[in-house]
Amino acid sequence: MIRSGARILLAIVLLVAGAAHLSALRRGFRIVVPDWAARLLHTDKDTIVVVSGVVEIMLGAGLVLLPRERRRVGAAVAAFLVAVFPGNLHQWRRGTSAPGLDTDARRLARLFLQPVLVAWALWSTRSAR
After folding, report:
1. Is residue 23 classed as helix, strand or coil in its secondary structure?
2. What mean pLDDT comes out for the span 22-35?
């Protein structure tokens, strides 16, 4: 029961974050995308923000709508969270503000939150034994 609640809460977090990437907050997210990420992916920062938002929405929906695949979806969520970590690190190192991350302390705390989110994704999608 606790795992199910944690999984649903994580799904809500992902859905809200994904929607924020596609809303008026989109500009704030573009600011924190590192230049090297756009070069590496051969695209622009806006596309990265939009695609990452869509992925977050899909992952959040998958956590709720695909209960038989919850372990795989959980692993995908964890992988996604690891994949975006370099952007979080870049944001902290540059001191770039984004929605809700407008101080050095908040940006630093966000770095320590990322492993918690990864663990949350893996734990909440594991079978209870």
Report:
1. coil
2. 88
